[in-house]
TrEMBL record:
Pfam families: ETF_alpha (PF00766). GO terms for molecular function: electron transfer activity; flavin adenine dinucleotide binding. GO terms for biological process: fatty acid beta-oxidation using acyl-CoA dehydrogenase. PANTHER family: ELECTRON TRANSFER FLAVOPROTEIN ALPHA, ELECTRON TRANSFER FLAVOPROTEIN SUBUNIT ALPHA, MITOCHONDRIAL. It comes from human gut metagenome. Residues 71-152 form the Electron transfer flavoprotein alpha subunit C-terminal domain. This is Electron transfer flavoprotein, alpha subunit.
């Protein structure tokens, strides 16, 4: 099976012919990070690894055409929706400028991705990324339940119709 890996930055083909279940996954950002204890002892066990112990083979490396957006780690997200349809380029440019001022990134609804206005790595929602930013700005987003599922745990939500 081919699944997103490393925070959605890579696609990995996973083959587990001798073990079942083959894989259990949880989408990144679905669960909040737990606070860790600061007073723990860190163990550094000694071990030897031989070449014969490695059962992984890299068959191909495919480079991304452009830098992917880190929606999951962003504190500020400015998302666009179908409401920018009268001026798509202007709407996306406005979102990019606001995101830059805030030190954040641009997100989008599925409608924008499906229309080809923005790439899928910007998509927030049930079929995109689940995010937990400090501030989530929604520009022209209808508020469909599928989109809301991906951003409802934001600390502050600002919606502009």
């Amino acid at each position: 099976m081919t699944r997103p890996a490393f925070g959605g930055h890579l696609m990995a083909s996973i083959i587990c012919p001798r073990f079942r279940p083959a894989m259990a996954t949880v989408r990144p950002g679905v669960m909040k990070k737990r606070l860790c204890k600061k007073d723990v002892e860190i163990l550094h066990p000694a071990f030897a690894l031989e070449a014969s112990d490695i059962h992984t083979e890299v068959t191909e490396t495919v480079k991304a055409a452009k830098k992917l957006v880190d929606l999951i780690g962003a504190d500020f997200i400015v998302s666009v929706g179908r409401g920018i349809s009268k001026d798509v380029e202007g709407g996306i440019k406005l979102a990019e400028e606001l995101a830059e001022v805030l030190g954040g990134v641009v997100g989008s609804s599925r409608a924008c991705v499906d229309a080809g206005w923005i790439s899928a790595d910007h998509q927030v929602g049930q079929t995109g990324k689940t995010v937990h930013p400090k501030v989530y700005v929604a520009l022209g987003i209808s508020g469909a339940i599928q989109h809301k599922a991906g951003m409802q745990d934001s600390e502050c939500i600002i919606a502009v119709n």
